[in-house]
Amino acid sequence: MNPKFAEAYYDRGWAWHSLQEYDKALLIDVKQIGGYMERGRAKLMLGQKESACLDFKKALELGYIDTDGMVKQNCN
Fold first, then answer.
1. Alpha-carbon Rg for the chain in angstroms
2. Which of 12, 43, 61, 62 would be 52's cystine partner, CB 3.0–4.6 Å?
């Protein structure tokens, strides 16, 4: 990452904050399928690909079919 590229730091900050919020939401309601999808996106932005794929697959398992593309694109 370019250390002078402010937008990258902004995106990482947003992803980190979002990740914490999705973690809290999923503690309250583990069947929040959209939460798994969005938490997976935040993890992907933070470079946590394996963990993101687990979230994408969980969302898909719970019936969030829009996650199928994320699984195909990012997960083995």
1. 13
2. 43
